Amino acid sequence: MKIFTSKSELSDALKDLKAQEKQIGLVPTMGALHEGHISLINAARQQTDVVVCSIFVNPTQFTDPSDLEKYPRTVENDIQKLEQAGCDILFLPEVSEMYGHNETWHIDLGYLESILEGQSRPGHYQGVTQIVYKLFQLTSPDKAFFGQKDYQQVLVIRKMTDIFKLPVELIMCPIQRSEEGLALSSRNVHLSPVEKQQAYTLSRALLKMKEHAAEADASAVRQAGLEVLNAEPGIRLDYCEVLDKDTLLAPDAASAGRVALIAASVGKTRLIDNMILN
Predict the structure, then answer these.
(1) Distance from C-alpha of 226 to C-alpha of 35, rounded to nearest angstrom
(2) Which residues are known to be catalytic?
(3) Angle at 40 between CA 38 and CA 45, to 5 degrees
(4) Residue 123 class from Cβ within 10 Å (0-12 exposed, 13-18 middle, 19+ buried)?
(5) Segment 153-174, tens digit of pLDDT
(6) How far apart are CA 115 and CA 241, in angstroms?
(7) Tell me: the pLDDT tens digits for 75-106?
(8) Distance CA 53, CA 38 (A)
(9) What is the rounded distance in angstroms from the CA atom of residue 211 to the CA atom of residue 224?
(10) pTM score, two decimals?
């Protein structure tokens, strides 16, 4: 695996590969890699010729400076995992490499920016689109791979690619879970054993909503999940919603399917999870 820290070196390497008509697959990450990330690397290996993984803890998407400070950083371990997974290129830039002085960014993401995660973390998706746009411009990937766990983020990035008419195919890969059902996340390291037991409630609530997925009334499906969540006192619920899986608006008769989404805090750790219902 080749490791690049500068945009110019990475760009030169990718130009040579594109001249050979190699298909480029990009897996953007913030590091602290787990099996969920490795599943994205595996998917990229299967669908493209050259797998590029980026590790960059992006400051512009953190609305809380303390959250940025405590975000886990495990670069040496990450490098080892990527090598074992067969990643071809790792892009590992510093903040000064990715951002200039007094840089500004704003695009119109519509309602997607103000609901769910956007409501809880104002400005978060501006930061996400800012860095993903930079990475897309830099690598010109044929395909980019993202995890379903950040469901709203995938829709936001799809909106961004539509705005700029970027020729990249977005691939959303399934959530990877522990044996107990907990969605794998870099933030799980902050959970104590007791909190981890409490966190399993999120996936149990989603499974309960999936059991009720055939019901026409989305509010009844949501209520089934809320009953599970409210029975666990260690859960501080942010939201639990059942929405159209393509738009994240209230589902109607024309909806092609629905997705259940949950965000909650356990101890000091905020977790998100979701499940496509039908």
Answers:
(1) 29
(2) 37
(3) 95
(4) middle
(5) 999 999 999 999 999 999 999 9
(6) 11
(7) 999 999 999 999 999 999 999 999 998 899 99
(8) 10
(9) 9
(10) 0.96
The structural domains of the chain, with segments of one domain joined by +, span: 2-173, 186-276
The one-letter code for the residue type at 61 is Q
- Per-residue buried b or exposed e for 135-146, using 16+ beta carbons within 10 Å of the residue's own CB: bbebbebbbbbb
Rounded to a whole number of angstroms, the distance between the first and last alpha carbons of the chain is 39
CATH pick for 186-276 out of 3.40.47.10, 3.60.21.10, 1.10.8.60, 3.30.1300.10: 3.30.1300.10
Q: Which of 3.90.780.10, 3.90.550.60, 3.30.200.20, 3.40.50.620 is the CATH number of 2-173?
A: 3.40.50.620
Same fold flag, 2-173 and 186-276: no
